[in-house]
Amino acid sequence: MEMKDILKQHVEAFEGKLRGNDRAIAEVKAMMHDIEQKMARVPSGGFASPAQSFGSQFVDSSNFKSFQADAYQGKVRIELKEITAGESGAFSARDAEVAGLARRQLRVRDLLTVVPTDSGSVDYVRQTTRTNLAASVAEGTVKPYSDYAWQQVNLPMRTIAHLAKITRQALDDDRQLQAEIDNEMRYGLGLAEEAQLLNGSGAGVNLTGLVTNATAYSAPFDPAGVETMIDQIGLAILQQSLTEFETDGVIMHPSDWMRIRLIKDADGNYILGDPGADVPQVMFGRPVVTTQAMTIDKFLVGGFKRQKLYDRLSPEVLISSENVNDFELNLFTMRCEERIGLAIRQPTALVFGDFGNIV
Q1: 20 to 30 A from 305, CA-CA: which of 12, 17, 168, 256?
Q2: Would the pTM count as exceeding 0.85?
């Protein structure tokens, strides 16, 4: 049934309800006639759109008329309303959720003691020597001297940053996309931070990372039989504990954690639990953090809370059109940066080892 037939049915229904009121019936018929005239001008299958063209909006605007009255002096800014899709009859639903790429969970920072600071550098004192010669002595004899030494360390804050371009249209059209852009810039910064926290060389403007400062793994004793990956983690925890610092975490690559999960006993049973069970990532009571920032086949055992991460500037995202030729190209430049410093206050509380599965 065509639209005009549907409207005709409604008019006839109104006539029935308004019977005896000739004036009201005449008004309804006049409205019906007007609608039919407008529909006759609409292309087949389409609907009339009340929206003006961009050109019509521009020349009919009060701002443009004022611009004309001033003999076209200065500049004019007009907000143009989007033309609806009504002229073609095509409408599109919109899902506000942006389908982004996969993101790694960043967990290394959570192992550390994080302290805010408002300085460009932090000074702290680290003990380097303890020679304890305390002993029982006879009355009237010389007491032994112990030897202690401390070192003052100056830790400069380092900047981690990156830039990206975005179009004006992308920023204007979708608030959800703006949030996604902001999160993506912060995520990229987090990836670089995690790599620096673990493997920063300390050279130039790099952080000095946890792995860089760790003691090499050396088993305190040889376990019976073949040394498994589980044995190695246990012995590394012991090695670190013998320095009198307690271990509070283990870091390894996700592939190595799965290797450990797949270890079976002589009867074919999984050592760390049935595959159908929700087995927590814990070894010898210490949480295991898996990250691809750690080199595969390597592990780091440590007293991570003994180390401090100083936050000078939390990650911020700034957007500007005043960069190079962004204004001409209708682009914006985004900048995301942070300033941090990693103090390896107790390097002996870190043990770095190799599982030895990859030659």
Answers
A1: 256
A2: no
* List of residues 6+ apart from 91 with CB closer than 8 A: 85
Distance in angstroms between the alpha carbons of the first and the last residue of the chain = 77
Given this structure, which CATH class describes domain 109-130+144-354? alpha beta
285 contacts: CB under 8 Å, gap ≥ 6: none
Q: Could you give the angle at the alpha carbon of 43 between the alpha carbons of 37 and 44, nearest 5°? A: 100
Amino acid 340 reads I
Quote the CA–CA distance of 355 and 351 in Å, as a whole number: 13
Contact 282, 261 (CB under 8 A): no
pLDDT at 259 over 80: yes
Q: What is the pLDDT of residues 79-112, one digit of tens each?
A: 555 554 444 445 566 676 778 888 899 999 999 9
Q: Output b/e per residue, 303-317; b: 16+ Cβ within 10 A.
A: bbebbbbbbbeebeb
- Contact 343/349 with Cβ under 8 angstroms? no
The CATH 3.30.2400.10 domain(s) of the chain lie at 109-130+144-354
CA–CA gap between residue 311 and residue 155 (Å, rounded)? 12
